[in-house]
């Protein structure tokens, strides 16, 4: 299991495409918004939480397909499925690798982009915390979408249609934490909801993803 | 006919859209059913014909 | 060692092979023959556990099958040694096996070269090296000698012979004569007849 | 185990062949009676005026939108556990019906809301959950089309349906948390039983609700029969190609 994680991380770093892609997209999105919405600080401040969270979510979405597609094409997925590693374990490790290479960089970059979007100063802590708690759920749910669409033609298009509705609860609670913090309200309630959601997703989704992979590999 | 008051337009619009969608669904389902039945019959006829002179 | 009786496999919902039965004892190999598309790959995937069978049973000792298909699962960005070490760890074997595998498939001078810069033949040898690293008794190989030159085929045959001598078994789907003394099984008689195939959907249909 | 007998395609086709005419006629009758009675013979509401008449389509379609997904959930579970093809095909047949019902519920909800709330679309928890349900239906149907091998498609869509149901429920409560609702209380709270709608409106409403349910049964039977035939056709064609 550890070997798979190290291998995936090494591949992501060597290939370089991995987390760079997600991060670049997040940066571009955050810079585009003011062009569209206008530079007035108060307008930006009010939409900053939503923009940052939606940006993080879409950046995650972008790199989901790579989780299984590369291993599927060169047959490694078949070999791993017939190896002693349980499929659920493989999916969990791959989601963790995706989180480390894509989720974490987003969490680090978010405050900088928050500055650009004139995010209220007291909500930076909450922003970091909510993203830290929320992005693992995005990776695990996203891995499920990737597992379902592995090997399908036009899988990329399908992944967004399948996964985005699943992201709604995480987005609602995540953005709400930052918005309430900005308005000086108590943000602990949505934060706990977000944490509960993530823990639930991390516990359950690998099994659903493994079932989907098993079905997918069987068909090919 | 009955007087629908000032919201007549909304009510009629709602009914038209809904009935339109539902009848469309029904029509599509019936059309698809008929075509599939015909295609299947044709395929089976082909199989039948091939089996009689084939084997 | 490996026991199949009355196995039927399906591809895309249609049964392609049925009534396949054979026994593969330790120490010998079985070559599967049959024209393309008859279902060799489907059968091998079923034996490797990647695919359920339509009916019939496949008995093999637990955790004893190593599968290798056309796509050999080699990561282009990783070097030969990193690829083999990864698979060694996945199968829970020490890295000493890695050196043995590199020796056996004479990849010594390639160990630190990323797989991307290797020829198809060398990559194939690395794929077969992976088999050695799994230390599994039953090798299930799908066209293992594709894109191998004469010398490499001979090398591969020696490796298989050594594996058989060591008490292992090999089930190989190939068209090339590997020079290994092994029975051959032609799958043509097991081809599912066109009009009576037991497609699980169709069987109880009409 | 008599119930599972009907999962066998041949028996299902025989049974559904007999049932279909009755359910179709029943559905037509009930819907006509319910809608016509509700549309022509009920007074206007003192506050909402004649827009209350939209209730006869909005409530039944909203109810069906949710029930169809529950039906798909059950059939998906049956497919995953007992591998009955008809059950998976029934789920595939039901999806478009559910999607149309959700669409109707959204359209009538928006139009009905317009005079009251001043806008066609209000980000109200209930309307938003229906929008999310609509997206789930789209994803489900798109997944069926995207997979070539129908057995794999049945597996993938069943897993998708299970996961989708969990997240639909989560979204239901998340949206309520996220924005206080403009939607009025449930007009026919089946759970609590008391009615916020007085009798003169309730009877035609009940009839149309039953009418929509029977309409769904008729449609899903028709569409499942088509799916069974389509699957049989695909098998025949594949076999022809194989033996040619």
From TrEMBL, chain A:
Membrane topology value: Multi-pass membrane protein
Keywords per UniProt: Cell inner membrane, Cell membrane, Cytochrome c-type biogenesis, Membrane, Transmembrane, Transmembrane helix, Transport
Pfam families: CcmB
Primary localisation category: membrane
Source domain of life: Bacteria
Swiss-Prot/TrEMBL GO biological process terms: cytochrome c biosynthetic process; cytochrome complex assembly
Molecular function as annotated in GO: heme transmembrane transporter activity
Residues that span the membrane, as ranges: 12-37, 43-64, 96-117, 123-148, 155-175, 187-213
UniProt record similarity statement: Belongs to the CcmB/CycW/HelB family.
Protein name, UniProt field: Heme exporter protein B
Source species: Nereida ignava
From TrEMBL, chain B:
Pfam families: CcmD (PF04995)
Membrane-crossing segments per the record: 12-31
Broad class of the protein's primary localization: membrane
Transport keyword on record: yes
Family annotation (InterPro entries): Haem_export_protD_CcmD
Keywords in alphabetical order: Cell inner membrane, Cell membrane, Cytochrome c-type biogenesis, Membrane, Transmembrane, Transmembrane helix, Transport
Any one GO BP annotation for this protein: cytochrome complex assembly
UniProt function note: Required for the export of heme to the periplasm for the biogenesis of c-type cytochromes.
Family label: Belongs to the CcmD/CycX/HelD family.
Official protein name in the record: Heme exporter protein D
Organism expressing this protein natively: Nereida ignava
Automatic annotation (TrEMBL), chain C:
Keywords associated with the record: ATP-binding, Cytochrome c-type biogenesis, Hydrolase, Membrane, Nucleotide-binding, Translocase, Transport
Domain ABC transporter, chain residue ranges per copy: 2-206
PROSITE patterns per UniProt: ABC_TRANSPORTER_1 (PS00211), ABC_TRANSPORTER_2 (PS50893)
Annotated GO MF terms: ATP binding; ATP hydrolysis activity; transmembrane transporter activity
Stored Pfam families: ABC_tran
GO biological process entries: cytochrome complex assembly
InterPro entries recorded: AAA+_ATPase, ABC_transporter-like_ATP-bd, ABC_transporter-like_CS, ABC_transptr_haem_export_CcmA, P-loop_NTPase
Stored Gene3D superfamilies: P-loop containing nucleotide triphosphate hydrolases
EC number(s) on file: 3.6.3.41
Keyword Cell membrane (UniProt): no
SUPFAM superfamilies with a match to the protein in the record: P-loop containing nucleoside triphosphate hydrolases
Cross-referenced PANTHER family: ABC TRANSPORTER I FAMILY MEMBER 1
NCBIfam families: ccmA (TIGR01189)
Protein name per UniProt: Cytochrome c biogenesis ATP-binding export protein CcmA
Source species: Nereida ignava
TrEMBL record, chain D:
Main location per the UniProt record: membrane
Keywords: Cell inner membrane, Cell membrane, Cytochrome c-type biogenesis, Membrane, Transmembrane, Transmembrane helix, Transport
GO molecular function, one term: heme binding
Domain of life from the UniProt record: Bacteria
Example GO biological process: cytochrome complex assembly
Transmembrane segments: 20-42, 54-81, 93-113, 125-144, 156-174, 201-222
InterPro entries: Cyt_c_assembly, Cyt_c_biogenesis_CcmC, Cyt_c_biogenesis_CcsA/CcmC
GO cellular component: plasma membrane
Family: Belongs to the CcmC/CycZ/HelC family.
PANTHER family: CYTOCHROME B_B6 PROTEIN-RELATED, HEME EXPORTER PROTEIN C
Protein's job: Required for the export of heme to the periplasm for the biogenesis of c-type cytochromes.
Protein name: Heme exporter protein C
Native species: Nereida ignava
Lineage, highest ranks first: Bacteria, Pseudomonadati, Pseudomonadota, Alphaproteobacteria, Rhodobacterales
């Amino acid at each position: 299991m550890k070997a798979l994680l190290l291998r995936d991380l090494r591949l992501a770093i060597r290939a370089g495409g991995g987390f760079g892609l997600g991060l670049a997209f997040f940066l571009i999105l955050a810079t585009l918004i003011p062009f569209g919405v206008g530079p007035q600080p108060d307008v930006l401040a009010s939409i900053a939480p939503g923009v940052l969270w939606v940006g993080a979510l879409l950046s995650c979405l972008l790199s989901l397909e790579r989780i299984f597609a590369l291993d599927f094409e060169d047959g490694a997925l078949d070999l791993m499925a017939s190896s002693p590693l349980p499929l659920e374990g493989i999916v969990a490790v791959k989601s963790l690798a995706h989180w480390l290479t894509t989720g974490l960089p987003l969490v680090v970059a978010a405050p900088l982009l928050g500055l650009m979007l004139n995010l209220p100063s007291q909500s930076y802590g909450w922003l970091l915390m909510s993203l830290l708690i929320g992005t693992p759920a995005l990776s695990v749910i996203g891995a499920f979408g990737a597992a379902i669409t592995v090997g399908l033609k036009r899988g990329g298009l399908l992944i967004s249609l399948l996964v985005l509705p699943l992201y709604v609860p995480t987005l609602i609670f995540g953005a709400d934490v930052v918005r309430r913090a900005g308005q000086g309200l108590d943000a602990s309630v949505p934060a706990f909801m977000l944490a509960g959601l993530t823990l639930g997703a991390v516990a359950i989704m690998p099994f659903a993803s493994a079932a989907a992979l098993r079905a997918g590999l069987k068909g090919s | 006919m009955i007087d629908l008051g000032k919201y007549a337009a909304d009510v009629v619009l709602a009914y038209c859209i809904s009935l339109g969608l539902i009848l469309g669904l029904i029509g599509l389902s019936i059309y698809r059913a008929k075509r599939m039945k015909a295609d299947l019959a044709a395929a089976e006829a082909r199989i039948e014909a091939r089996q009689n002179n084939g084997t | 060692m490996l026991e199949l009786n009355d196995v039927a496999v399906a591809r895309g919902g249609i049964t392609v092979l049925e009534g396949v039965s054979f026994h593969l004892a330790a120490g010998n190999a079985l070559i599967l023959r049959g024209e393309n598309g008859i279902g060799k790959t489907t059968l091998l995937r079923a034996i490797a556990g990647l695919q359920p069978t339509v009916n019939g049973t496949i008995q093999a000792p637990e955790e004893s099958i190593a599968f290798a298909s056309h796509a050999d699962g080699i990561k282009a960005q990783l070097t030969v040694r990193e690829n083999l070490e990864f698979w060694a760890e996945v199968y829970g074997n020490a890295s000493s096996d890695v050196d043995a595998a590199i020796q056996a498939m004479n990849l010594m001078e390639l160990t630190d070269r990323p797989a991307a810069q290797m020829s198809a033949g060398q990559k194939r040898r690395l794929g077969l090296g992976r088999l050695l690293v799994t230390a599994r008794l039953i090798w299930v190989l799908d066209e293992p000698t594709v894109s191998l030159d004469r010398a490499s085929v001979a090398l591969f045959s020696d490796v298989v012979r050594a594996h058989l001598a060591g008490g292992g078994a090999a089930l190989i789907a190939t068209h090339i004569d590997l020079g290994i003394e092994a029975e051959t099984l032609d799958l043509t008689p097991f081809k599912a007849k066109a009009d009576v195939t037991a497609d699980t959907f169709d069987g109880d249909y009409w | 185990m008599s119930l599972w007998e009907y999962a066998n395609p041949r028996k299902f086709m025989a049974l559904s062949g007999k049932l279909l005419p009755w359910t179709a006629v029943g559905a037509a009758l009930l819907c006509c009676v319910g809608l016509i009675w509700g549309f022509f013979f009920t007074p206007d509401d003192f506050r909402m005026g004649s827009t209350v008449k939209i209730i006869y389509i909005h409530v039944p379609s909203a109810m069906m939108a949710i029930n169809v997904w529950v039906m798909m959930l059950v059939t998906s579970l049956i497919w995953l556990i007992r591998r009955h093809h008809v059950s998976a095909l029934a789920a595939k047949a039901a999806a478009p019906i559910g999607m149309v019902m959700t669409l109707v519920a959204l359209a009538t909800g928006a139009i009905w809301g317009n005079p009251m709330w001043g806008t066609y679309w209000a980000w109200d928890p209930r309307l938003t959950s229906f929008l999310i349900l609509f997206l789930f239906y789209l994803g489900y149907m798109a997944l069926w089309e995207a997979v070539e091998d129908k057995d794999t498609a049945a597996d993938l869509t069943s897993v998708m349906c299970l996961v989708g149901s969990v997240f639909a429920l989560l979204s239901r409560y998340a949206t309520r948390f996220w924005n206080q609702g403009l939607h009025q209380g449930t007009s026919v709270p089946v759970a609590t039983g008391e009615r916020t709608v007085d009798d003169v409106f309730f009877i035609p409403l009940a009839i149309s609700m039953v009418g929509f349910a029977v309409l769904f049964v008729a449609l899903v039977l028709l569409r499942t029969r088509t799916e069974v035939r389509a699957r049989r056709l695909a098998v025949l064609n594949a076999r022809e190609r194989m033996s040619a």
